[in-house]
């Protein structure tokens, strides 16, 4: 510490030492009457012109002093500039350039400072803030509008908290860490956040964005033992707020910790499952509703974890997306599915789901083609299923990837149609071979007139555009009849079969071929459905 202080003050120390030396010499000269001796010498040796020499020395000395002072000024200026530049670089590294709030690096520095602080910390509140509906603003109104909303959110947060206590972690995630008196004060502030952020946002495009915020709150030391746990606890409370219906603030409770720990444990077993390749595709039959014949299978990922629990794909695909493991998982599944499908009769197609998170990978199309080539499945036997969310998330990336797939002869189906936030104009930019009507419409269209009109409109849209339609989640015969009457082309659902393991497929295909049709046969004789079910169950 002393060494760094000496380094910083070196110039001052040198100046001080020189001044000190000068004073000592001056005092010594006075003490020994040096000036009188010199004057006497000059007077007695007039011929040597010593006085002229001395005058020249004094003038040179003065000029040297002026030169040294001006260089000293310049040096000071340089040092000031350098430390300003260092401060700038530091600022950029620790701040988010859009909202000008401290970023994740800034947050880590704050957490380290809190962890290393000596003595009592007082009561610290951790707020985890996540916007509700921000993705929709980005998707529907564009990134420029999304940026404007984020700037406005930062401004509203500055009205409640000190600016240096607010952190933007990227996307629509914000964190606040501040000293508070008690839980009541922190809870009141958390409620203010939800109220402030739920007001509408005027955009420069003269549009208005409506969105809300979910807030999780945790207090150190009331809820946690170590400062680093504060954020995790606040996040857990925020997830709970989202679950309870968004737009609210929730205070951390110990039970929430269990959910968080479960998620961390699931991530570890997901990584392990990927290493061991134990997540495999099962196959659900796709039926031609006009002829009743089997047209192919949709690959659906299935995973039994180490404890023998069947983990739902919604759960692990979501986690794989959040953790970035989706690319590896999808590659593994596609390879396996193509290998299986290459053994099926050539008229059967393989449908495969892509996750929205994969569309940011511009080389996705090429990677799929490479897997097809490696496994020997012709591109026209593959149908990639994408959701509206995947497309509107990044229209340009989706256009590039889907363009590659189309060009290679791979079919593209729009999955879960009617459940996303896309507009028809956005979708019209893409060439789909198939629209899949979501299960939520199929399950209710017979009892709900409005749902029936929507299903009719979707089927009409498909017919108008010359795109085939598939109804998902068919569970009853009467649904099949109504859909056939409305002109739906393909069907999929538990009525025809659930997703089955690869080893059951051969028998299923043989059975479908023997009867020449799956749905015709079942329409005539219900027993066939039972038989298929028996094959599926392996009994
Ligand atoms: P999806 O692609 O829309 O798949 C259809 C889902 O509906 C499947 O659920 C299927 O089991 C279920 N289903 C089919 N017929 C019926 C029915 O008659 N009744 C009912 N109640 N459900 C039916 P699953 O397998 O749980 O998958 C859910 C979602 O997870 C899939 O929706 C898909 O979005 C995603 N997913 C599954 N496997 C993969 C995968 O390998 N990769 C990706 N990216 N996503 C996948
Ligand atoms: Mg699908
Ligand atoms: Mg679907």
Question: Could you walk me through the main structural features you see in this protein, from its secondary elements to its overall organization?
Answer:
With 539 residues, the chain is of the alpha/beta class. Helices cover 56% and strands 17% of the residues. The protein has 22 helices and 16 strands. The protein has helices at 2-8, 10-31, 34-44, 50-94, 104-116, 134-141, 143-158, 183-197, 228-243, 254-276, 313-323, 326-341, 364-375, 388-393, 395-408, 424-427, 439-444, 449-465, 477-486, 502-514, 519-524, 527-537; strands spanning 123-132, 166-170, 173-180, 201-202, 208-209, 212-220, 249-251, 280-288, 294-304, 310-311, 349-353, 382-387, 411-417, 434-437, 468-471, 490-491. The strands form three sheets. The chain has an eight-stranded mixed barrel with strand order 8-9-11-12-13-14-15-16, surrounded by four helices. Strands 2-3-1-6-7 form a five-stranded mixed β-sheet, sandwiched between helices. It is elongated and about 140 Å long. The N and C termini lie far apart (78 Å). Mean pLDDT is 87; it is low at 519-529. Residues 298, 353, 385, 415 line the site of one magnesium ion.
């Amino acid at each position: 510490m002393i060494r760094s202080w000496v380094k910083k003050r070196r110039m001052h120390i040198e100046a001080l030492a020189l001044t000190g030396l000068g004073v000592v010499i001056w005092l010594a000269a006075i003490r020994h009457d040096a000036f009188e001796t010199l004057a006497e010498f000059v007077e007695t040796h007039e011929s040597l012109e010593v006085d002229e020499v001395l005058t020249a020395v004094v003038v040179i000395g003065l000029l040297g002093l002026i030169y040294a002072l001006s260089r000293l000024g310049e040096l000071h200026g340089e040092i000031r500039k350098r430390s300003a530049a260092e401060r700038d670089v530091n600022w950029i590294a620790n701040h988010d350039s859009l909202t000008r709030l401290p970023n994740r690096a800034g947050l880590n520095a704050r957490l380290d400072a809190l962890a290393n602080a000596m003595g009592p910390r007082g009561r610290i509140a951790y707020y985890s803030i996540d916007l509700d509906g921000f993705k929709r603003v980005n998707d529907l109104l564009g990134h420029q509008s999304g940026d404007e909303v984020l700037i406005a959110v930062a401004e509203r947060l500055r009205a409640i908290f000190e600016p240096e206590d607010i952190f933007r972690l990227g996307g629509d995630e914000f964190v606040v860490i501040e000293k508070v008196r008690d839980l009541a004060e922190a809870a009141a502030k958390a409620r203010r956040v939800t109220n402030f952020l739920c007001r509408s946002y005027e955009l420069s495009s003269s549009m208005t964005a409506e969105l809300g915020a979910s807030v999780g709150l945790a207090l150190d030391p009331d809820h946690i033992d170590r400062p680093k746990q504060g954020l995790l606890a606040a996040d857990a409370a925020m997830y709970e707020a989202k679950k309870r219906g968004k737009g609210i603030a929730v205070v951390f409770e110990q039970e929430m910790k269990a959910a968080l720990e479960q998620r961390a444990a699931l991530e570890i077993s997901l990584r392990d499952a990927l290493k061991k390749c134990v997540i495999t595709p099962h196959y659900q039959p796709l039926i031609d509703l006009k002829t009743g014949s089997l047209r192919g299978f949709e690959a659906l990922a299935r995973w039994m974890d180490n404890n023998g629990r069947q983990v739902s794909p919604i759960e692990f695909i979501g986690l794989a997306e959040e953790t970035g493991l989706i690319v590896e998982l999808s590659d593994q599944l596609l390879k396996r599915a193509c290998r299986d499908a290459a053994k099926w009769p050539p008229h059967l197609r393989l449908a495969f789901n892509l996750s929205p998170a994969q569309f940011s990978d511009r080389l996705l199309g090429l990677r799929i083609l490479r897997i097809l080539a490696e496994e020997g499945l012709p591109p026209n036997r593959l149908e990639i299923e994408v959701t509206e969310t995947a497309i509107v998330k990044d229209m340009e990336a989706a256009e590039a990837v889907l363009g590659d797939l189309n060009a290679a002869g791979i079919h593209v189906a729009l999955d879960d149609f009617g459940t996303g936030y896309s507009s028809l104009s956005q979708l019209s930019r893409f060439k789909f071979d198939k629209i899949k009507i979501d299960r939520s419409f199929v399950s209710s269209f017979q009892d709900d007139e409005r749902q029936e009109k929507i299903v009719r409109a979707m089927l009409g849209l498909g017919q108008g555009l010359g795109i085939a339609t598939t109804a998902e989640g068919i569970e009853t015969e009467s649904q099949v009849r109504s859909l056939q009457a409305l002109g739906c082309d393909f069907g999929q659902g538990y009525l025809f079969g659930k997703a089955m393991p690869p080893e059951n497929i051969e028998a299923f295909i043989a059975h479908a071929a023997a009867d020449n049709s799956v749905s015709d046969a079942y329409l005539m004789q219900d027993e066939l459905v039972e038989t298929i079910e028996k094959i599926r169950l392996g009994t």
